[in-house]
Hints:
The complex is a heterodimer of chains A (119) and B (253). Chain A is mainly α and 119 residues long.
Amino acid sequence: MLLRGVALLAACFVAGQILGETLGRLLGIQANVGGVGFAMLFLILSQNELEKRGLFHLEMGEGVNFWSKMYIPIIVAMSSVQNVRVAFSNGLLALLAGIIPVIACLALMPLLSKLAPKD
Amino acid sequence: MEYIITFLDKNGLVFAFLVTGLIMYFSEAISKTLTRGKIPGSAISIFMGLVLAYFAGLETLGKKGIADIPGFSGFEIMGGPMFRDFAIVSTAMGASFAIIKKTGPVGILSLFLGVIISFSVGVIIAYALGITDAESLTTIGAGACTFVVGPVTGTALGASSDIIAISIAAGVVKSILVTIGTPLIAPYIGLKTPQSAMIFGGLMGTTSGTAAGLAATDPKLVPYGAMTATFYTGLGCLMCPSVLYFLMRAILD
């Protein structure tokens, strides 16, 4: 049962990522377009569907939950393989072009938040 | 000694679990004793990861942080895009489809604004620092989006390799800044609801930075932020070498 959960997650991952890759190809760009997002939607929808039919076991959820708890350790590992040296050694232009656009975008947060529907 | 390093490289993933566990253990201890829990342990451990990557980069002159140190190659698997994306997808379980659907339109708006504003500001900075040709300006503007959009755009337009390197560096700076800065700025920009996380993901883009920053802020927000951020790089790769490049040429002519 545990592995069925992991397999469900893997199925959503593969389907979503392939959809993202295909979409990228169709648009003629060398990038994955929203693969992770599609995979997440598949997972949410399939979980809802299985729950409706009473096929979603608690233990299946644990198989998925394990990975969502592994999330932070994986992010820690990810940050330790970043090319941090290059980020700080490529001069003023790289630093400014990395920092100032972020600040400009953050300034829009409050405005866009007002447009978001409340629940 | 050599056989131990060979052993560690062969069993790289398991060794990476061990080392990451130690990093997180010490970060938790630092969080409790030095900051009295004010800075979450997860934020400290992500920061420690970046610091380790920096010193490893100085030491080995490689591109892959501590994965370039003999014995630590397993970090490339554990911290690589496969596990990262797999774990991000798993966080979607229990996320509310209703909220995603309702916030969808604002999320899409934030995606477009995020790409266009990052690009424009990046271009203005490059121009101010003396770069004048449309290809180089576009490439650096694309690098201000994410470290994938920069080189994809630069390659498509035939920009020089040092300009492409700067565009990658700008994207990496952005990703690190978002990773470290998100938990610090979250209270001031109202980043506490799933809706705001979706807008944040759209504006920032950088999936790794957004996901790590939100994880350190509130893990419940991760799926919502990642949901929009995952479309950003694709949108950037779509717009920068085409519409935005033509726009640049029209402006410069």
